[in-house]
Fold these 2 entries.
Entry 1:
Amino acid sequence: MSKAALDRQSMLTAMAAHVMLNGLANASLRPLAKAAGTSDRMLIYHFGNKEGVIAALLDFLAEAYIGTLDNVLPDGRQLSRAEYLDQLSRHTRGPAFQPYAALWWDIVSGAARGNASYRESAGRVMAKMLAFVESHAPVGDADPAATARFMLTLIEGAQMLDAIGCSDIADLALARAFCAD
Amino acid sequence: MSKAALDRQSMLTAMAAHVMLNGLANASLRPLAKAAGTSDRMLIYHFGNKEGVIAALLDFLAEAYIGTLDNVLPDGRQLSRAEYLDQLSRHTRGPAFQPYAALWWDIVSGAARGNASYRESAGRVMAKMLAFVESHAPVGDADPAATARFMLTLIEGAQMLDAIGCSDIADLALARAFCAD
DNA sequence: GCCCTTATGTAGCAACTGCTACACTTGTGC
DNA sequence: GCACAAGTGTAGCAGTTGCTACATAAGGGC
């Protein structure tokens, strides 16, 4: 890895930490640079302009977010669907995902306003999440694709309710999800 | 209504329109004032400081958002739960709610970052939504409270997926929700 | 007529924004 | 050894931010 690429990587690591604490929406060059131990001048030099900085950060963060999924769940194939959903929510609503939660809503908010980078990044994360849910799902479902999407939608709704302090609603909702099983 | 209160009201109306177009996250005094046909000086005068302006706006917007619910749905009591969920999503994901969608994610994002005004506003909206869903729900459910929360969580998850351009996931999820019925 | 509250315009401050100009030092290929 | 590209520090520009100081009306109670 070249020196430049190495610098980029360490800058992104430091900036990602800063952004997870302070939010992505109002991130500006000078605080980001300070967090990365450099100057705004250098961020522009390495990433072209602010948009480039943010785009690189989104990439980096999406990878990191997705990375938390790996090896986090024991295979759910032997569980019932209700048990699997429970395991899934335990992780996605638990402490491992917590640092990313606020960040995620920054990204959703940006995507909802039509920002292409944000939308693309969010889409990539969702696709990966879906693939993960599908690949670990219990076998023997009549329509596994639909069930995976159903679980994902529920989980995301629950995460939103967590974010605004309405976890109680989400808890009952998830408990109700597979009551027919 | 006093002149001051009337002014406040018309200012809020104008600012709300501006915020629905341009977002709440980066709203600043001078553009807000321009939208309201006044000056930043006057906004501070009437609302104390920027925080006061935003808090008043959140109040106003929450009321307006909730207001779109009234008389929008025929009573769902004769429908099956699947049909009711379908009707519900048709409205909450449809054009009537569209102007509020992006705004909603601004608020969620703020709430997730711990802003008390945002969180309170979001909580009030969710409580009202829940009451609405519960009060129109089909009769004869074994656990209507859980079912209402289940539907609400699904709807919100679907709205998030819409916001990031993954409506296809949401569509299948909703179709799957009451497949046991 | 006078006073005092309410309301408003103008100007400006200090901080911060993204970004640039310019000068300078390295390291590398030849 | 030298030219040239890559990398970096300093200074600054023009614009925006929330907010304030100051002056000035306008209206109502006495």
Entry 2:
Amino acid sequence: MPELPEVETVRRGLAPVMEGARIAKADVNRPNLRWPFPDKMSERLTGAKIERLRRRSKYILADLDTGESLLIHLGMSGRMLISGAQLGQFTHDHPAPEKHDHVVFHMENGARITFNDPRRFGAMDLLNTQTADHHKLLSSIGPEPLGNSFDEAYLTDALSAKGSPIKSALLDQAIVAGLGNIYVCETLYRARISPTRKANKISKQRVASLVPIIRQVLSDAIEAGGSSLKDFRQADGDLGYFQHSFDVYGREGESCKTEGCGKSIKRIVQSGRSSFYCPTCQR
DNA sequence: ATAGGCACCTGGTGGC
DNA sequence: TGCCACCAGGTGCCTA
């Protein structure tokens, strides 16, 4: 799923019903997702107040008033469904339970948040809030692309040692946080860089150009997610994927959108993932 | 240390 | 309708 913009959209959608609210009860319907849930997860969540909902890379962190933070990863297919809450002028009734509803948060304010994840690549854990950054899953993640420490000097340096294709390098969460297959494809398309080009063989200028492009690609997608929030509030409360159109991703065989190009978009496989690109525009 | 491939899961789609 | 192959937005872990 969910790359940084989708996770941020989910966070923003959950914030109005979860931030400052207390968890009356948490139904944990199976012992694990990708990994076993922590011991007594349900008990440790019950009665806890969520002080803040934040995001680090593709993880959502709910800081509780118990000294712990609930870490949530949506994996490939994780969704959050909100019901029973007043969202704008709409209230969504609680839906019938569905297959793959693995964890359900019943909030004291009447809202219910259902985590549904068919493929179960998602994860939840409880960590000490103070040391959350040192958690195994978070400790080796690189800078937030929309944050101050992600700049041209950083990226130039980080890629200078990478002999792998730029596609893989940008997918590497240790280089930059939150990019996934879609937004790497979109970024390289806008930067006119071939996904197969070796990261350390790209000129300094072109690497530098990636920084504002990454920021723009992600910001645009977050903005699109923001407008989808208005829609889901009116529709069904489902915080999952949102409608978003891409310039290259998923457009194999269609014509390149670059003015005056119009050549066919190609799909190749790099380390098991599809890369979509225009061989004419991207060098 | 680092790069590549596999594994973990379910569901949807398209071809025969 | 059924069966099969292939595809999917992630990422930890194992192997060279």
